[in-house]
C-alpha cells in the first residue's frame, strides 16, 4: 500500500527556490500536464513562504522542496529517485554562473563514476549527482550487512569521492512496502548506515557523509508487483558541492 509523506510547516525559502520555480516553469512549457503540476508547486510554495523561519537550513529547505516538488522535478529526471535525493540537490543549488561551473565539475565526476562503478545507475541533475544501487546488489533480502560485491562497489565509488574532495554526500536508504512502516524505516536506516560505515573505512571523512532512512515512503515503482518492489528496495547516494566548491564557483563566475 502506498503511503504519502507529510510536509512539516515552519520552513522558509529565499530567492534560490523562487529561481527553481522559474526554471521549472521554463522547462515544462511544452507539457500541459506538467504545467499544471508546476502551478500546484508554486501555490504550495507560496503558502510555505509565509510560514517561514529565518533559521531553516538548506537541508531542511531541500527536504521540504523535494516533498512538494517530487511530482514535477521527479518527472524531469524520469522518476528514478526519491524526493529526499531530489530535494538535497535543489536545496544545495546556488544557480547562475556559479551553478554552471559546479555542473561542469559534476559532469566530469558522473562520467568517472560510470566508468569505475558499472553496477550503479548514475543520474546527473542540476548541480548534483545521484548514484543509485538496487538493494539486491548491496544486501541480501531483509538484511543490512553488505555483500562482498557491495563492498567492491563502495570501494570503487570511494575512489571517485576521494578524487573529488569538495563534495558532501547524502546516503538515503529505501525499502518496498512489505512489512510495517516502523520496521521498514529502521531497515532503511541500518542500510544507509552500513554504506556510510564502509565508506568511512575506505578513507572518506565522516564529516562529508550523512544518512537518512526513508523506509517505504518514497517509492519509484508500483509496490503491488515484484518488479516494482525490487526497484523500490534501493540505496541512493547524493553528491553535492560543499561550501569550498561553492566559494570557488562564485569566484570563477565573477
Which fold does the CATH topology of the domain at 116-252 refer to?
Answer: 60s Ribosomal Protein L30, Chain: A
Percent helix, as a range, is 40-55%
Sheet of most strands: 5 strands, mixed
Straight-line N-to-C gap: 51 Å
Mean pLDDT over all positions: 78
CATH superfamily of the domain at 116-252: OmpA-like domain
Explain this structure to me?
- The protein is an alpha+beta fold and 254 residues long.
- Strands 1-2-5-3-4 form a five-stranded mixed sheet, with helices on both faces.
- It has a domain at 116-252: OmpA-like domain (60s Ribosomal Protein L30, Chain: A).
- The protein has ten helices and five strands; from the N terminus they run αααααββααβαβαβα.
- It starts with 14 loop residues before the first helix and ends with a helix.
- The model is unreliable at 1-74 (pLDDT under 50).
- It is globular, with a radius of gyration of 18 Å.
- The longest helix has 21 residues, at 96-116.
Quick description:
The protein is of the alpha+beta class.
Features:
single chain; about 250 residues; alpha+beta; 60s Ribosomal Protein L30, Chain: A; five-stranded mixed β-sheet; about 55% helix; disordered N terminus
